[in-house]
Design a protein that fits this description.
By secondary structure, the protein is of the alpha/beta class. It contains 8 helices and 7 strands. Bound molecules: S-adenosylmethionine.
Length: about 220
């Protein structure tokens, strides 16, 4: 699903980029994912699917100069923003961005040591086809980590800790967006049980706020 299809052209891509880069909920989240990558991989090719402005891609690349990071996105305005950032940061040789759809990734089979995706899964017109395609480009013995929000309010304790950590305004805004925007946990479970991806090992993790689908090849 293209951002452009919703009228999300250049201006909205730019707006999203500023928001994501400065929102402490998201900044914290990307930092945690990048640390997890650093702890699990010492070198290799990493793909970020639905990379948007590339914030995670840059954070991951910063952790280890033996990582070669590729970002792919179906929005050409997002790809432009990410490419410009790579140029400004002097990282264009190690962090590259291109237009592409998760349903038809522009890469050979078994190209990547790790595939990541954050907050993009709920946009895919066929999430199961996306999973199948990600599995295709993963090297054998490698994993994909697909992160997203989940629809519905977190439990009382989690709500309290979100507000404590991020403040009333940002915390409440985040919970409001989550409560309407993403797939519910049941919807994700039913996607993962579709025949189309039977045989692909997908492990669903839920930390109360975010979900992670770990695809193991
Ligand atoms: C909410 S943004 C998340 C961007 C980035 N991953 C982040 O965490 O900031 C969702 C992104 O997924 C991209 N996207 C949506 N459908 C896609 C598809 N079928 N293939 C590739 N990218 C897609 C959108 O263009 C958008 O940039």
């Amino acid at each position: 699903m293209r951002l452009e299809n919703f009228g999300f052209g250049g201006v909205l891509s730019w707006f999203y980029s500023v928001l994501a880069e400065n929102n402490p909920v998201m900044v914290d989240f990307y930092e945690n994912v990048a640390n997890e990558v650093f702890l699990n991989l010492s070198s290799g090719n990493i793909l970020d699917v639905g990379t948007g402005p590339g914030i995670l891609a840059f954070k991951v690349a910063d952790k280890n100069d033996k990582f070669r990071v590729f970002g792919v996105d179906i929005s050409s305005s997002m790809v432009e923003i990410a490419k410009n950032k790579a140029k400004k940061k002097g990282l264009s040789d190690r962090v590259t961005f291109q237009f592409g759809d998760v349903l038809n990734l522009p890469f050979e089979d078994e190209s990547f040591d790790l595939v990541l995706s954050t907050f993009s899964f709920h946009h895919w017109s066929s999430p199961s086809k996306g999973i199948k395609e990600i599995y295709r480009v993963l090297k054998s013995g490698s994993q994909a980590w697909i992160y997203d929000g989940k629809r519905g309010l977190p439990n009382k304790q989690t709500r309290k800790s979100i507000v404590e950590k991020y403040g009333m305004i940002l915390g409440t805004l985040f919970m409001f967006v989550s409560s309407v925007h993403f797939f519910s946990l049941d919807e994700i479970k039913s996607i993962l049980s579709l025949d189309e991806i039977r045989g692909i090992k997908c492990i669903l993790e839920d930390d109360g706020i975010f979900i992670k689908i770990r695809i193991v090849k």
